[in-house]
Amino acid sequence: MSSGAASVLAPAGPSAALSAEVSWVLIAGAALIFVATMALLVVAIGRRRAAGASASTRDRSRLWIVGGGLVVPIAVLGALFVYQLVRAPNVAVADRRSGELVVSVTGRMWWWEVRYRDPGGGPDIAAANEIHLPAGRPALIGLNSGDVIHSFWVPSLAGKVDTVPGRVQQLRLEASAPGIYRGPCAEFCGDQHARMTLHVVVDPPDVFERWLRAQAAAAVAPRSAEAERGRAVFEAQRCAGCHAVRGLFDGGTGGPDLTHVGSRAFLGAGTVPADAAGFARWVADVQHLKPGARMPSYDQLDAGSLQPLAVFLEQLQ
C-alpha cells in the first residue's frame, strides 16, 4: 500500500504508468545524447590539431561537427519528440462513460472541496481534502476553482490539471490497487499553497460502497455527555455559520462540511492529524498552524470548552 509518497516514478494506475514509461525513455534519450557529446569532447581534446593541418583533416573535422553536433542530436531528439506525442497520456477528457463515478473537486484557499452524488438520490455528499475511489474503477473528476488558479496533481495516479475559476476541467483517475496517494497543489496560490494537500484513498470496491453510504447519512447525535457539551460549544461559538453538520447544523458553506470530519485522516488539508488532540490544536491555534486561513484561532476557549468540542468533532464519523 502506498502512503504519503508523491512521485511520477511510482505509478499506481494506468495513466501514471504510461507517464512513467515516457519519462524513463526521455531520460534515457537525454542521457544518450549527453554521453555521446562528452565522448566527442574527450576525443577532440585528445587529438589536438597540429598547425597547418591538411585539407582532408579539416574535412574530417567538419564531418564530425555536422554529424555528431547536428545530425545525431536532431535524429535522437526528433525520435523522442514523436515518441512522446504518440505515447504520452492525454490528460484532457472529452467524453463521459456510462455509469462512471463522477466526483466534483473545487480548489479553495487553501483546501479542496470534494462532492459526490448521493447513490440514494439525496443531496450531494460533501467532503474535504480526501477523495475516496474504488480500486480498478475509473472515476471522472470535474475540477473547478472558487477563487484563484490551483493545480490538481496526484503524481502516482495521473498528470496535473489546473483548476480555473469559471471553468470546469475534467480528469480521469484510476488506481490499480488500494492505497493512499498524496497530491500537492502544483500551482502557487497564496501564502498557504504549501499546506494544501489532497489525499486520494483507494479502497476495495465493497469497502468504497460502504464508505459512500456512510457519508450520505446525516451526522449522528453526540453519544456522550462530554460530546454533548462540545455540541453546545460548537453552537455557542457560531461555528455553524461557516460549517455544516448535516442533521445537526445545516446551512454553513463558508468552510468545509464537517458532517463526517472525524472519519478523515487530516485537518487543514494535511496540516494536523484528525484526532482529538489535532482538533483541539486546530481550533485553538489555527492561525499559528496555517497563517492566513479563513478561520480565526479560538484561543480564548478554556480547556473545559475546548476538550469537549474536540471530542464532539472527533465523534463525527
Strand percentage, roughly? 15-25%
**Largest sheet: number of strands, sense, barrel closure:** 5 strands, mixed
> How many separate helices?
6
Radius of gyration: 27 Å
What is the molecular shape?
A: elongated
The helix-and-strand class reads: alpha+beta
Q: How many structural domains? A: 3
Q: Are there runs of 5+ residues with pLDDT below 50, and where?
A: none
Task: Outline the structure in words.
There is one protein chain. By secondary structure, the protein is α+β, with helices and mostly antiparallel strands. It has 3 domains: 14-87; 101-202, Sandwich (Immunoglobulin-like); 225-314, Immunoglobulin-like, CATH 2.60.40.420. Helix content is 37%, strand content 18%. The chain has helices at 14-46, 55-87, 205-216, 225-236, 276-289, 303-314, and strands at residues 101-108, 111-116, 125-128, 130-134, 139-145, 150-152, 161-163, 169-173, 179-184, 197-203, 266-267, 272-273. The strands form 4 sheets. A 5-stranded mixed beta sheet has the order 3-2-1-5-8. A hairpin with an 8-residue loop joins strand 6 and strand 7. Helix 4 (225-236) packs across helix 6 and helix 5 crosses helix 6. It is elongated, with a radius of gyration of 27 Å. The protein starts with 13 loop residues before the first helix and ends with a helix. The mean pLDDT is 86.
Keywords summarizing the entry:
single chain; 317 residues; alpha+beta; Immunoglobulin-like; 3 domains; 5-stranded mixed sheet; 3-stranded mixed sheet; 6 helices
Topology of helices and strands:
Blueprint: H1 14-46, H2 55-87, E1 101-108, E2 111-116, E3 125-128, E4 130-134, E5 139-145, E6 150-152, E7 161-163, E8 169-173, E9 179-184, E10 197-203, H3 205-216, H4 225-236, E11 266-267, E12 272-273, H5 276-289, H6 303-314
Parallel strand pairs: 1-5, 4-10
Antiparallel strand pairs: 1-2, 2-3, 5-8, 6-7, 9-10, 11-12
Helix pairs in contact: 1-2, 4-6, 5-6
